[in-house]
Write a structure and sequence with these properties.
The chain is mainly alpha-helical and 386 residues long. Helices cover 54% and strands 4% of the residues. Strands 1-2-3 form a 3-stranded antiparallel beta sheet. Helix 11 runs parallel beside helix 13. It is elongated and about 95 Å long. Keywords: Hydrolase, Membrane, Protease, Serine protease, Transmembrane, Transmembrane helix.
Amino acid sequence: MQPRRGNNNTIHPVLGPTPPGGGAGSSASSSASNNPAALYSELVAKHYRKWFPWLIPVFVVINVAMFLITMYINDCTNNSVSCFAGFLGRFSFQPLKENPLLGPSSTTLEKMGALDANKVVHEHQGWRLVTCMWLHGGILHLLANMLSLVVIGIRLEQEFGFVRIGLLYVISGLGGSLLSALFLRSNISVGASGALFGLLGGMLSELITNWSIYANKVVSFITLVVIIAINLAMGLLPHVDNFAHIGGFLSGFFLGFVFLIRPQFGWVNQRYAGQGHSPSSPKPKFKTYQCVLWVISLIILIVGFTFALVMLFRGVNLNEHCSWCHYMSCVPTSKWSCNSQPASCVSDQAGNQFTLTCSNNGKQKTYTLQNPTSSQIEGLCTQLCR
């Protein structure tokens, strides 16, 4: 799924219009004085420097490189009976019926570090909670996520710097992986969507915590809420891990109150007032509600992550305690099914004839194969059970 955002003037309206005259001369100063939003823009330009966005492009390069490495290891031409775009050789895709996203097999993704809750819990492979966010199920999945990352991430990194946005991205991705592992116990999960939803959540909390400095507050809030709601609603479709989206969004939302807090207008204005100016009542750097939100959010994050990790490594399956929660990730309709059990087949061999029977749906098909590998048989089973 591809997170989206509105245009820059809507999400960050206070950084928009430049006073007439390009900010030069007394006429510009007079115009800014009559426009609080423009005045704050000038003061912010003095107080904050624009960061050069290098970390988000590095994240994009890492994700693309990991996809290429995954496809190289997948080696469809040697490990599957049929491939899509076979002219790509070793980088050809699994059959579309097996992977419509134009990518590798589930076996390869699992080998590369996809999130598998059973391996995390029973084989102590906790590193999968982090590695899964750098893998993608196919080139379509990769392009959608990387386009979203560039559109959302670069603007945030320019405004808040690589440290805060980097931490927001990685911690949100971990939060998405945790919630996914607590609910999805029979499937693997990959993708940067949890981290991307963390950036969206951070944008929403940044708007709330810096509420007093924004122009067009209500319009900005409604626009961002609608964008988030549409993206979460798309997560109700099958084969999309909406638990990772929800976990990433909640993590990013509370992290935004911690990492993306800005000083209030009065403090910035006071700091850059003339040297002869002595305010009768000095303004604090942050408003009371900003500090309260900072403390509450930090407590929620620490308690939430600790609680989730303890439950995960104790083998807790939240589906057993919430009979309706699975609807948050997929809502079945007459058009599609939410049954995403891993493919399982029974094979019967007679010479070069292999008869596979899908245990999921009972379908049966006979193939003529010469010394097939286990990967080839597994690929045929996946296609048969689709």
